[in-house]
Write a structure and sequence with these properties.
It is built from 12 helices and 8 strands. By secondary structure, the protein is an alpha/beta fold.
Length: 308
């Protein structure tokens, strides 16, 4: 019986087989080199081509496969600051394919995907926002780059190995009512997902005038949670201080009606002031996260303290 391979196994083997061969290899040669069935290898080669890691060219009737440009540019061990610089440069030069290959290459090298989110994606997003605020980047360009960053977050989520799922844990992430920014809560949602939480990203689901939003949100929370003994975290991103009051009213309403271990995680520029914890208290938050790492650390400690 032939052995069954995972995509991750084949991906690593194919990259190792092609990384020092500029002229490429045929599918048969790759199969022989990595010790796998030719039909199996051919199937995976097409998948790896679709995600941008390898390319093919015709040599008569034979497909010759070679690594896409940029896949082997980073040397082991990976320096995350080099990754940050390279990713930022390619993104700001609008090299979408190159940015995708950098992310895939780093994931293939065994780097912690959450660290990739916190130390590469987050600084790039911050740099884009800073350039925009200084008038050095237009609205259109900022929107384009933000969309590319969002796609990179999806790429990390669906190309990473997830930790074992934590039973009866739920994490829901959204922007405050009236907010337009959704990248922050999306990134945190993916980080929690990779850490094994049952994570849900809602984005911006309510307007400032939606008076029944707390009822709608409560219905959703009760629907996704399977047991009253579960642990639920709601992450709220608030970028503008004027949205704090409405957000606080929604949280207090939901908390009073939800019969389970319910905790609120606050994040966003609205708290980046001297009295940040006072504002966190104003919306009923249990913790204010200055960055992704502190949010994960707090949640993991909370999980370990719950008496199941």
């Amino acid at each position: 019986m032939s052995r069954r391979y995972s995509l991750e196994e084949i991906k690593r083997k194919v990259i190792d087989a092609l990384k020092d061969i500029d002229t490429g290899l045929s599918g048969v040669e790759i199969a022989e080199k990595i010790g796998a069935n030719r039909i199996t290898v051919t199937k995976y080669l097409n998948v790896l081509e679709a995600i941008g890691l390898i390319k093919k060219k015709k040599a008569g009737s034979v497909n010759v496969w070679y690594l896409a440009r940029g896949v082997t540019e980073l040397e082991l061990p990976i320096d995350i600051l080099d990754v940050q610089r390279l990713y930022m440069d390619t993104l700001f030069n609008h090299s979408e394919d190159e940015a995708r290959r950098i992310i895939l290459n780093v994931l293939n090298s065994g780097v912690d995907p959450v660290k990739l989110l916190s130390d590469v994606i987050t600084p790039t997003l911050n740099a884009a926002n800073e350039l925009y605020s200084r008038g050095r980047m237009t609205v259109t360009e900022t929107t384009f780059i933000t969309n590319l960053i969002s796609e990179s977050i999806d790429l990390i989520k669906f190309n990473s190995t997830r930790d074992d799922v934590k039973p009866n844990t739920y994490a829901v992430f959204m922007s405050a009512q009236g907010e337009l920014d959704t990248i922050g809560p999306k990134m945190t949602s993916v980080a929690f997902y990779l850490k094994g939480w049952n994570s849900y990203f809602l984005g911006n689901v309510a307007s400032e005038t939606d008076l029944l939003f707390d009822i709608d949100l409560l219905k959703f929370l009760n629907k996704i949670s399977k047991t009253r003994r579960g642990l639920m975290i709601m992450g709220i991103s608030v970028m503008q201080k004027e949205h704090l009051q409405g957000t606080g009213e929604t949280i207090k309403s939901v908390r009073s009606k939800l019969n389970k271990n319910f905790f609120v995680l606050a994040a966003g520029r609205a708290f980046d002031i001297k009295e940040e914890h006072e504002f966190a208290d104003e919306i009923g938050a249990d913790f204010y996260a200055k960055d992704l790492a502190s949010a994960i650390e707090w949640a993991e400690e909370l999980y370990n303290k719950v008496k199941w």
